[in-house]
Write a structure and sequence with these properties.
transmembrane helix, ABCA1 protein, single chain, transmembrane
C-alpha cells in the first residue's frame, strides 16, 4: 500500500474509534485546553518585570581539583547575582578564591605539614606545649 492510503485508513480508523467514545474524546480535548488556560491566567496574573543582566560567581567543577571545587561550593553558597562580569569569567581562570578563608586554611595546613627546616612555627608550638606541661606539673594537675 502507498503511504497516503495507509495514512488515510489510519485516520479513518482513529476517527471512527473517537466517534464511538465521545466522553473520552471530550476529556482528551478539554484537559490540554484546561491546562493551557491555567498557564495563560498565571502569566496574566504575574506579568514579567525588567531585571538587570545577572553574572554569577564562577564555580569550579570537580575536574578542576578538589580544593577549587570545595571553595566554589563554600564561598558561593548564597549564589549572589552581580550586575557586572565577575573576575572568574575571564578565560583560563579556574577560581577567584585566593583570598578566601578556605584557601588560607589549606595554605596554613600545607605550610605546617610540609614545613622546611627554616620554618620555626613547629618549634614554637613545641615550646608552647613544653611550657604548658611545666605549668600543669607545677600547679599539681
Amino acid at each position: 500500500m502507498a503511504f497516503w492510503t495507509q495514512l488515510g485508513l489510519l485516520l479513518w480508523k482513529n476517527f471512527t474509534y473517537r466517534r464511538r467514545q465521545t466522553f473520552q474524546l471530550l476529556i482528551e480535548v478539554a484537559w490540554p485546553l484546561f491546562i493551557f488556560f491555567i498557564l495563560i491566567s498565571v502569566r496574566l496574573s504575574y506579568p514579567p518585570y525588567e531585571q538587570h543582566e545577572c553574572h554569577f560567581p564562577n564555580k569550579a567543577m570537580p575536574s578542576a581539583g578538589t580544593l577549587p571545587w570545595i571553595q566554589g561550593i563554600i564561598c558561593n553558597a548564597n549564589n549572589p547575582c552581580f550586575r557586572y562580569p565577575t573576575p572568574g569569567e575571564s578565560p583560563g581562570i579556574v577560581g577567584n578564591f585566593n583570598a578566601s578563608i578556605v584557601s588560607r586554611l589549606f595554605s596554613d595546613a600545607k605550610r605546617l605539614l610540609l614545613y622546611s627546616q627554616q620554618d620555626t612555627s613547629i618549634k614554637d608550638v613545641q615550646k608552647v606545649l613544653g611550657k604548658l606541661r611545666k605549668l600543669g606539673n607545677s600547679s599539681g594537675l
